[in-house]
């Protein structure tokens, strides 16, 4: 990930420049609130107008229509449920967005981000795509950050001081799809971890152990494993050296039936973990029994036909 581009942060706007926020769900409301706390004159619009109330009480200006909202500020931030919603809302407002900067913080795919960027460019709109790495309660507080990318890095530099009111900023590339790529990859890691925690609580809970009693052990274990596994796997993947002295795929394949059997005997569904059996079986069948878990990444990439030459070494521990 490129370093933050503080050298490009030429702020051509007043320190507390006006901002428009479209979409006042849980996240959009938190974003608007942070802008108001930082002193930015903030115009808000939401499809369900009643949601503007708490923000108006904090000093926001409500707009009657999306068009009025867009016309109120040089920087327009949108945070809706999906990018289809964004297109549906903003395509009719293209003429009013012309000459402004649109920052889209709606969760989406890299392809959607590129399509929106192309649409914006065709209408003279500077477009920045973003991925929020925070929950609403973290917005405006330390620890939150937002990924940004796009072809309009100059617009990002102009508005970055305003965007910093929301969360720390991380510029991840000149492809509009980069922010979504990093966002989805980071969230993938989170969902995998969360699903493990979900299953662990189900299994331990089946024996009547209160979740609160198990939580300290689980937290310590997951943190310790993640701390070692994330950099260790990166090293294996980038070097192509998958041979392990930690935990082989062979031993994991042998152990997995114990998990699936224990789930069944405890009356806990195995629907989250059963697919792992097929992946481990394939790894062993392809000759990777002595390799570590990093080898599974290369198998997933091959399944999609995106594996690099380095990844595609057949029955070996290297390459
Ligand atoms: N909440 C979170 O923790 C995550 C953190 C990471 C980023 N995500 C993404 O942020 C987007 C918005 O999420 P949200 O939590 O604010 O979602 P809701 O509270 O459900 O609010 C959705 C807002 O979108 C409006 N909306 C939906 N469809 C349309 C439409 N066709 N036209 C106009 N507005 C639309 C909705 O309006 P209303 O229902 O109140 O009238 C809300 O303002 C999302 O991409 C997350 O993945 C959040």
Outline the secondary-structure elements:
Layout lengths: L18 E4 L3 H12 L4 E4 L7 H5 L3 E2 L3 H5 L4 E4 L4 H8 L3 H4 L3 E4 L5 H13 L3 E8 L11 E5 L3 H11 L4 E6 L4 H29 L4 H29 L9 H18 L7 H12 L8 H10 L16
Parallel strand pairs: 1-2, 1-4, 2-3, 4-5, 5-6, 7-8
Antiparallel strand pairs: 6-7
Helix pairs in contact: 8-9, 9-12, 10-11, 11-12
The protein binds ligand FVH.
Ligand FVH binds next to helix 1 and helix 4.
Please characterize this protein's 3D structure.
By secondary structure, the chain is α/β, with parallel strands linked by helices. It folds into two domains: 8-173, 3-Layer(aba) Sandwich (Rossmann fold); 206-318, N-(1-d-carboxylethyl)-l-norvaline Dehydrogenase, domain 2 (Orthogonal Bundle). Helices cover 49% and strands 12% of the residues. The protein is built from twelve helices and eight strands. The protein has helices at 26-37, 53-57, 66-70, 83-90, 94-97, 110-122, 153-163, 178-206, 211-239, 249-266, 274-285, 294-303, and strands at residues 19-22, 42-45, 61-62, 75-78, 101-104, 126-133, 145-149, 168-173. Strands 3-2-1-4-5-6-7-8 form an eight-stranded mixed sheet, with helices on both faces. Strand 7, helix 7 (153-163) and strand 8 (168-173) form a beta-alpha-beta unit. The radius of gyration is 23 Å and the shape is elongated. The two termini are 24 Å apart. Residues 1-11 and 307-319 have low confidence and may be disordered. The structure holds ligand FVH. Residues 23-28, 46-48, 51, 79-81, 85, 88-89, 106-107, 132, 135-136 line the site of ligand FVH.
């Amino acid at each position: 990930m490129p370093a933050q581009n503080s050298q490009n942060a030429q702020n051509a706007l007043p320190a507390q420049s006006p901002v428009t926020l479209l979409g006042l769900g849980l996240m959009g409301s938190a974003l608007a609130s942070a802008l108001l706390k930082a002193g930015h004159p903030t115009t808000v619009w939401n499809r369900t107008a009643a949601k503007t109330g708490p923000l108006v009480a904090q000093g926001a200006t409500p707009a009657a229509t999306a068009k009025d909202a867009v016309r109120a500020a040089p920087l327009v931030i949108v945070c809706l449920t999906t990018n289809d919603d964004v297109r549906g809302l903003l395509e009719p407002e293209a003429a009013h967005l012309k000459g402004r900067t649109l920052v889209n913080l709606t969760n989406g795919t890299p392809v959607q981000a590129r399509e929106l960027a192309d649409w914006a460019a065709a209408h003279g709109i500077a477009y920045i795509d973003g991925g929020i790495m925070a929950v609403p309660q973290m917005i405006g507080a330390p620890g939150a950050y937002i990924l940004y990318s796009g072809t309009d890095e100059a617009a990002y530099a102009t508005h970055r001081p305003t965007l910093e009111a929301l969360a720390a900023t991380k510029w991840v590339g000149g492809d509009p799809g980069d922010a979504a790529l990093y966002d989805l990859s980071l969230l993938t890691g989170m969902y995998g971890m969360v699903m493990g925690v979900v299953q662990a609580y189900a299994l331990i809970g089946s024996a009547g152990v209160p979740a609160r009693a198990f939580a300290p052990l689980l937290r310590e274990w997951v943190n310790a494993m993640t701390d070692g596994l994330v950099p260790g796997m990166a090293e294996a993947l980038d070097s192509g050296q998958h041979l392990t002295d930690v935990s082989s795929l062979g031993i994991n394949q042998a152990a997995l039936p114990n998990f699936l059997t224990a789930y069944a005997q405890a009356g806990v569904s195995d629907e989250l973990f059963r697919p792992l059996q097929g992946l481990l079986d394939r790894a062993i069948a392809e000759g990777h029994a002595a390799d570590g878990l990093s080898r599974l990444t290369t198998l997933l990439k091959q399944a999609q036909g995106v594996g690099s030459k380095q990844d595609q070494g057949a029955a070996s521990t290297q390459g």
